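User: I'm designing a mutation panel for Enoyl-[acyl-carrier-protein] reductase [NADPH] FabL and want to avoid disrupting the core. Could you give me a predicted structure to guide residue selection? Please restate the sequence first so the numbering is unambiguous.

Assistant: Good idea. Sequence first, for numbering, then the predicted structure tokens:
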Amino acid sequence: MIDLTNKIALVSGASRGIGRATALQLARAGADVVINYVQSRDSADRVAEEIAAMGRRVAIVRADVSEQSDVQSMMEFVGNEFGRLDILVSNAASGGFRPLLAATPKNFEAAMNTNVRALLFLVQAAHPLLGQSVDRAKIVAISSHGSHMALPWYGLIGTSKAALESLIRHMALEFGDQGMNFNVVQAGLVPTDSTKMIPGSEVMFNARSSKTMMGDRQLEPEDVANAVLYLCSPLSDLVQGQVLIIDGGAAIHV
């Protein structure tokens, strides 16, 4: 059993979907959790209530992780309230679904700022707190198949996810010998409020059972959260700069 008792974790975009499932799973393993959100305060409150009911310490911080000043303020709060940070999960994502010919500079910047630049800001601001971790600090970024597969109207997001995975590898190279692990969980098609907006999503979701090797079982946010939990635990101390794919085998064949 993975035991994260006394660990301090921060999950960005933790009010819904994969972020919510991850925050709850880390708490079940014993971690105290900082919930980051930017719009869904009611949803963040509900997640916090579930975590508090487990007997864990929990805090809610509203911050736009694409803005450096917001991230810095959030880390100052974490430092004042908890004194250190053991786990950082970069989950918040944005970008919108549109054909590339319709993409504007503002659309491109929004995707890159929230999906890639945010990770840089988070690690830069959290670096002193991560350095206070008693054991190895764990940094996990959430990616998707769009980082290496072409999906309808997913060009900007997919491009940003590819950049995200590259950034994690370079962070592992620069900071890995400082008691920190940097890895990626690349999720297959998971039913969330966001993925349901992908053009043709109903067809893609219906086709999942023929793409995976899991029978009728479908990929859920909790499955992704389980992979994050592993990468946040001592069991993954020797996993560095890697991409862990969670998709039931969907990506290994056409």
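For picking mutation sites, this is relevant: The mean pLDDT is 93. Residues 105-130 form the longest helix (26 residues).
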